[in-house]
Request: fold
Amino acid sequence: MVWMSGTDKLCYYFNKSWLDFVGRTLEQESGNGWADNVHPEDFHRCLHIYMTSFDARQPFEMEYRLKHRSGQYRWILDRAIPRFSADGTFEGYVGGCLDIHEQKEAAEARNRLAAIVDSSEDGIVSKNLHGIVTSWNHGAERIFGYTADEMIGQSILKIIPPELQDDETRILQTIARGDRIQHFETIRLTKDGRRIDVSLTISPVRDDTGRIIGAAKIARDISKQKQSDRALRTTERLAVVGRLAATVAHEINNPLEAVTNLVYLAKNVAVRDDVREFLAGAEEELERVAQLTKQTLGFYRET
Reply:
């Protein structure tokens, strides 16, 4: 889309591509009419660049949103240079514009994605089909301890325990087929040698032609979750043992009371002193057993 302006800074020519884009006539665009289609948020910046460059007789380049005939504002790349006659007389400017809306939106989407990746608590890593790391976010630095400079260009095997390195071959084969791996739980190594539990989700990365060129991996540190799961299982086992102990203690109480009563009666009717002593000793031992069952039941009820 081509435009031209004179020495008075007013535009007097717009080609058919420009007029078709904005859906207006040359008369409507001439002078400062073209500025009606510039997005209000971009207008003053564009005007400043145009005026200062014009006064300095310097080329300029700027991006702004221009209203399309559909009513949509689309991003435009506008490049212009001063025009001079054969004898060096300044005659105005000529400019050419490109519709870069799709590229601009794609770049903004990439920037948003990059910001999300960079701020993620999860490790987000990309690698090629040979297992060489090509990107490494802050989450990966936090989880594994290696900086991006230490990992980019290195093999991903650097963080995989020796006994699990065969898994990487199978992962790359799966990705090369175009398949995705979700929530694969495994072990990885940190820079200081610790082994941590991680959950991996791995997806193929494709180029513009759809060809698979690598893999994107999201790694989540689940070590604390695993510890909590183990603690929960231990607690559940203890609870089962506690319920069993309480049941046994409850079942012991009834015969224990009966035996205690029988010993008491036998002690009262015993004639020989040594028999009464034996029975008194038995009574003391039975009291100890009764105390143990009471403590067992109390422990279960409290905890």
